[in-house]
Amino acid sequence: MNSEQENTVSPIKRALRAIEDLQAKVDELEYTKREPIAIIGMGCRFPGADNPEAFWQLLRNGVDAITEVPADRWNIEKFYDPDPDAPGKVCTRKGGFLAQVDGFNPEFFGISAREAASIDPQQRLLLEVGWEALENASQAAEHLYNSSTGVFIGIYLNDYSKVMSSVGDSTQIDAFSAIGNSLSVAAGRLSYILGLKGPSMAIDTSCSSSLVSVHLACQSLRLRECNLALAGGVGLNLVPDTSIALSKSHMLNPNGRCQTFDAAANGFVKGEGCGVVVLKRLKDALADEDNILALIRGSAVNHNGRSSSLIAPNGMSQQATIRQALENSGVDSAQIDYVEVQGTGTSVGEPIEVAALGAVFGKNRPQDKPLVIGSVKTNIGHLEPASGIASLIKVVLALQHGEIPPHLHFQQPNPYIKWDEFSLKVPTERMPWSIGAKRRLAGVNTFGFSGTNAHLILEEAPVLEVAPRSTERPLHLLALSAKTEEALIELAERYEKHLAANPDLALGDICFSANSGRSHFQHRLSVVASSSNELYEKLAAFGAGQEVAGLFKGKAASPKIAFVFTALNSQFLEMGRKLYKTQPTFRAALDHCDQILRPYLEQPLLEILFSQSPPAPPALFSLQYALFQLWKSWGIEPSAVMGNDIGEYVAACVAGVFSLEDGLKLVANSQVDNFEQIAKEVTYSQPRIPVVSHLTAEITTPQYWCQQVRQPVNAASVNILAQQGYEIFLGIGSDRFSETEKVWLPSLHPEKEDWQQLLESLGTLYVRGAKVDWLAFDLDYSRQRLQLPTYPWQRKRHWFGGNRNGHEKVESFSPNKSLNQADLKQLLKQLEITVELSQAELNLLPRLFELLEKQHQQTETEKETNITLQQLNLKSLTAEDIQAWLVNQIAQELGVKPDEINVWLPFDSYGLDSVLAIAIASAAKQFLGLDVSPLLLMHYPTIGSLSLHLAKELEASESEIFEI
């Protein structure tokens, strides 16, 4: 409406319109406050389950994952006493534990082995599970770099610092120890590693920490502080200290079980683990076509205030939290089908919690529709800071699978719970929870001994209509990658097993989810297949070490790619026909050429293409141009181009020498007598991409194209490209233009189906390092994101010092110090404990002691001699000598073998940070006598370049001080 029309509207109508606008803004604000949050991915590591699918199998099968305390945690024989009041003892031998918490894959995250040993395993576990959650959500990490992605992590105990203290050797504490054991760094390290710039915080409200983290993440998303969020919690039990304290407070059940709701309930059993969910605003998740697992409708958090005691739960405060969560969700209590409870099984907390639930959900509830309540703690124990996220993930899985898993250890109802007053049900076996006309909703309740309560309302994922697949490729390409050869082989095996277990998954969806939803690393594998079964068979054959057609494996580099537009024949046109029917981008490019050529051709282009008549130059040009546009749409672009015959016109066109319209005009009139005049009418520009030709004329002149008609480009131009370092020649056609030894990849092949050759060439490009735009690759097709296998960590033990976890502590014996009788006694004591030796073998130790002492003295003498020689011959040191020293020094600092160091890789690629840079600079000063600044490692970022620089500095002046 213009200003004149606005003036003719009555004041009342203008006022009504203003009111409508204001109401719309109010409605938008109200929606923003209550906007549902989509859960689009999950990752977990819980007792007995390393991922969400394994966790679901554990839950639905009613598995009790509680075990005896592992020997690598603490000596249970030393610390166990069934009497909870026994000083310094734990009243139970049981717990829920993870395997191999000492293992880690630091290289994957760019962390050195030395630093890894000083990092709290909770932080390390969080890095792995956070990465897995993103992969589960099909969120490639590189696409999140510098994004407004938030991280909210519940964490509240650090047992690893106690492990470090128990070693008793303060000399082992390094610069990484403080950072590695700070709880705040748990969230910060994840943001740092992934390059996330949204809010990042660690939350400690004891047992409600992880659910509070999810609440804060949802608030941050609604406030537009972040566009994506990772939320969860982590906790590990490495030492018995907390268990001793909980025993004294009579919170632990001596029989090692969480018997939630049962008359025999007598406390809980401790567990450990990590869970992370990936969250996004519902509108954004729908727009991005994410795989939505469930919705968080609303949440609330409060505190007990001044109640009966700090750690005692408060029923009225819990009721207030639940009611606020329902109000924030816009949900009525009667709509809730199921509540996952805190359910710690304590004599005080349990009746209070159930009473609070009953007061909100239970009254006036039909007897035939009772509120179902359960607790995951009966399966895996009380995970404390990670307990809330474990409960949430359980409910999401139940919503996904349409089934409520059984609640364990419920034999006799707790008499202190008013079962008759409320309509409640505890599922002791699997219960159907099917999708129907009514929305399925659930609550998750938690509280902590800090006094903080939290409650979340979850809803099933919206049922979305799947777009019909009007067009589909006959073949698909799967791209897998890893950071090591071993990890790649294991990843392929995981996909093989996943395909065997899920044979009905659509192959296009599998490849789309894997290709676009994962980061792509150096070691790569690509597989062309027509069906899920064929893909499974090829991966199985690969795992068996067999040669497989259509499977390519390689190590990515940064190849220089040249596009070669070759000659075409009629067989090529037949292949173009098939591609036209199944590839919309290719078809659109041909249709565009058809429109441009109408004034020049008596017969439409498409009729020429798909007839049996000999191919005309405009048809050949158009096909190659369409193929180029197809490769370009997939992210494959050349560093240089060349062409043969008609192909040179296409090469010049795509390089920007002239427009598509002018290119088609030249080709359509290339056989006429007045071609020179037509060439002069064309507008020429300098090429944006190098165009290689053996002709001497300038390509941006009419003279060049007049010469080209008489003397087409020949194979000599390919040799020029090879001499310039181009390694891969992508033929935009079917014929091999030259017998060069470089990699030649045709777009089409007369003996292969069009898609077969295209995808084989794309697969080869991928494994050699080409960057493919996988989202664009499937842009023309209807796809759904799937949950697929995650990265296979290549873990090794990374642990601080020589802690023996509750066994007798012994000073470590070091052969690098001079030995005396006290050392000998200490050595004997250590060997008696750590090694099984006979008395005769122990009697030999004094003689061994004598030999070691002599060897030590000889070594020290040699060191002194070497130092003297080094000081005398500093100027004679070569770059190779300095490089060898640097390799050994850096390997020592990183905690790796010297042969694992690549002297031409950047320092940061294997975890060298500022702390280690300072240590290396200090050592270099001692070795070379040069005042080396740590900043030098930034200006010379590889061992090779730094060695060359230091050699020059040393040659110039032995005592020169240099700062960058």
Short description:
This protein is an alpha/beta fold and 964 residues long. The chain is built from 37 helices and 24 strands.
Structure explained in plain terms:
- With 964 residues, this protein is of the alpha/beta class.
- Helix content is 42%, strand content 13%.
- The strands form six sheets. Strands 6-5-7-8-1-9-16-15-10-11-13 form an eleven-stranded mixed beta sheet, sandwiched between helices. Strands 21-20-22-23 form a four-stranded parallel beta sheet, sandwiched between helices. Strands 17-18-19 form a three-stranded antiparallel beta sheet, sandwiched between helices.
- 46% of the residues are buried.
- Multimerization status: single chain
Poorly predicted residue ranges: 802-817, 861-872, 959-964
* Cα shape: globular
Beta-strand content estimate: 5-15%
**Helix coverage percent:** 40-55%
Instruction: Round the mean pLDDT to the nearest integer and report it.
Output: 87
Strand order of the largest sheet: 6-5-7-8-1-9-16-15-10-11-13
- Can you count the helices? 37
Number of strands: 24
Q: Termini, distance in Å?
A: 64 Å
Largest sheet: 11 strands, mixed
Topology:
Layout: H1 3-8, H2 11-34, E1 37-45, H3 52-60, E2 67-68, H4 76-79, E3 94-95, E4 103-104, H5 113-116, H6 121-136, E5 149-154, H7 160-167, H8 175-180, H9 184-194, E6 200-203, H10 209-222, E7 228-235, H11 241-248, E8 273-281, H12 282-287, E9 294-303, H13 315-329, E10 336-340, H14 349-362, E11 371-374, H15 377-380, H16 387-401, E12 403-404, E13 424-425, E14 431-432, E15 441-447, E16 452-460, E17 476-482, H17 485-501, H18 507-516, E18 523-529, H19 532-543, E19 551-555, E20 561-565, H20 570-582, H21 584-597, H22 605-609, H23 617-633, E21 640-643, H24 646-655, H25 660-668, H26 675-680, H27 702-710, H28 716-723, E22 728-731, E23 743-746, H29 754-767, H30 774-777, E24 796-797, H31 821-834, H32 839-843, H33 845-872, H34 879-894, H35 914-928, H36 936-939, H37 943-956
Parallel strand pairs: 5-6, 5-7, 10-11, 10-15, 11-13, 20-21, 20-22, 22-23
Antiparallel strand pairs: 1-8, 1-9, 2-3, 4-24, 7-8, 9-16, 12-14, 15-16, 17-18, 18-19
Helix pairs in contact: 3-16, 6-9, 10-16, 13-14, 17-19, 20-21, 21-23, 23-24, 24-25, 34-35, 34-37
